[in-house]
Write a structure and sequence with these properties.
mainly alpha; two-stranded antiparallel sheet; 3 helices; 2 strands; elongated
Length: about 100
């Protein structure tokens, strides 16, 4: 597999609006070539009999059932609030909007 060239790294740097020096172009060319090689090796391992997965282990939903249960009344919930209005917590305005 041909390695990534210095000119390709310079092109990528321009697209990303990065200013790179000459020695940085050489350094990143080597690193990007290593990354591309690693991805190619992974692609070789993946075979037709291995289904694509998002997680190596089976996942199950571990959340509890959604059931209606008794809870606080609005008065009880607001009993410790420093300010309230129309059965809601009243907080200071922060965005300058109404």
């Amino acid at each position: 597999m041909p390695g990534i060239t210095r000119e390709e790294v310079a092109h990528l740097a321009r697209l990303a609006r990065l200013e790179l020096k000459g020695e940085e172009l050489d350094h990143f060319a080597g690193q990007l070539d290593d990354i591309i090689g690693a991805v190619a090796r992974v692609s070789e391992v993946a075979d037709q009999d291995v289904p694509p997965t998002s997680h190596p282990l089976p996942l199950t939903n571990v959340m509890r059932r959604d059931e209606v249960r008794p809870s606080l009344t609005p008065e009880q919930a607001l009993s410790g609030a420093p300010a309230q209005e129309q059965q809601r917590f009243k907080v200071p305005q922060i965005l300058g909007e109404e």
